[in-house]
Amino acid sequence: MSGLIMVTGASGELGRQVVEFLLKLIPAHRVAALARRPEELADFADRGVSVRRGDYEDPDGLERAFDGVEKLLLISARTFTDVKAEHRNVIHAAKTAGVRHVHYTAIQRRAGSTFEIPQVTEWDAYTEKELAASGLDVTVLRNSQYLESFDMLIGELAADRVIRVPAGHTPTALATRTDMAEATAAVLATEGHAGHSYTLAASQAFTLDDVAVILGEVTGAPVTYQDTPVEDYVAARVAAGMPEPWASFAAAWFRAMAEGEFTPTDDIERLIGRPTTSIREFLGQRRSRQVQ
Length: 292
Ligand SMILES: NC(=O)c1ccc[n+]([C@@H]2O[C@H](COP(=O)([O-])OP(=O)(O)OC[C@H]3O[C@@H](n4cnc5c(N)ncnc54)[C@H](OP(=O)(O)O)[C@@H]3O)[C@@H](O)[C@H]2O)c1
Known about the structure:
The protein is of the alpha/beta class. It folds into 2 domains: 4-143, 3-Layer(aba) Sandwich (Rossmann fold); 151-155 and 162-170 and 204-261 and 277-291, UDP-galactose 4-epimerase, domain 1 (Alpha-Beta Complex), CATH 3.90.25. 45% of the residues lie in helices and 15% in strands. It has helices at residues 13-25, 42-46, 59-65, 83-97, 120-134, 147-154, 177-188, 208-219, 230-239, 244-258, 267-272, 279-291; strands spanning 4-7, 31-35, 50-53, 69-74, 101-107, 137-143, 162-165, 197-200, 224-227. Strands 3-2-1-4-5-6-8 form a 7-stranded parallel β-sheet, with helices on both faces. Strands 7-9 form a two-stranded parallel ribbon. The radius of gyration is 20 Å and the shape is globular. The N and C termini lie far apart (48 Å). Bound molecules: NADP nicotinamide-adenine-dinucleotide phosphate (NAP).
C-alpha cells in the first residue's frame, strides 16, 4: 500500500485523536487530514501531515481534496444538518477521486434491534447502503456512545445528588472516544479489514446504579440514581434552558442505553492490545479533576 490514509473531521474530538494515534503507527507523510478550516490543523501540517481543505457540502472540493488518498475515514457529519447529502457527497467524491477503501463511523446497535435514535440510526442505514452500492472497499466501525458524551449529558450533580435520566437499569458498555480512536487508527494502519465491521464498545458493561456508586466514591458523598420518565427528563432539561429538540435527542441516547443497544465486545481490546478504559477509571480521572 502506498497511498495516503485520510481522516475527515480531523478538527473534531474523534478525528484529531485518530490522527494522533495514526502518527504513532505510520510515517506522517502517509497521513492526510481534512478540515473545513485547515488552519485549525497547523500543528499536524508542521509535523508533516498533508492537511487539506474540504467540506462535506462541496462535492467538487472533496474530489480535489481526495487526490492521492487510498484509504479514507469518513467521520459521520453532525446531527441537525443534512447528513444524508453530506455522506453521499463524500462517498461519490471518494469513488471519483480513486479512493480504494472507505471506513465509516456508524453507531453501535444491538443485533436485531428496532430501536431508533432519531436521525442517527436512519442516516447510518442510508450511508451503509450508499457505501455498499459504491463498489468501494468498506469497513464499518460501529461506535458505542462515547463515555465522554454520556458524562457530559449527565452533567453536574444536582444539589440533592440524584442522577435523574431515562437510562433504565440495563448494563451498557460505553467505551471512551480515546479508546475508539486508537482502535480506529489500528484498523486504518493495517490491511485485511475490507468487508469487515468492528463494534467499538467496552469489554465490561456497567449500569447507572454503578455510576452513582462510583460518583459517590469519587466526589466523597453518596449519589443515587433514579430512572426517570422521558417526559420528566425533557421537561427538566428544557426548564434548565436546553432547546427541546436537543433535550429529546439527549433522552434518545439514554433510552438507547435502557434498550440495551450498547453491549460489550472485545473488538477494541483485540485491536489495541489492552483492556478498554473502565467506567471507574474514566469517572475517577474526570470527576476527581472537577472536585479539586
Ligand atoms: N458515538 C457517540 O457518542 C457520538 C457522540 C457525538 C457525536 N457522534 C458522531 O461522531 C462524529 C464525531 O464525533 P466528535 O466527537 O469528533 O464530533 P466533533 O468534535 O463535533 O467533530 C465533528 C467533525 O466533523 C467535521 N464536520 C462536520 N461537518 C462537516 C462538513 N460539512 N464538512 C467537513 N467536516 C465536517 C467537523 O469539522 P468543523 O471543525 O469544521 O466543524 C469536526 O471536525 C460526530 O460528527 C457525530 O456524527 C457520536
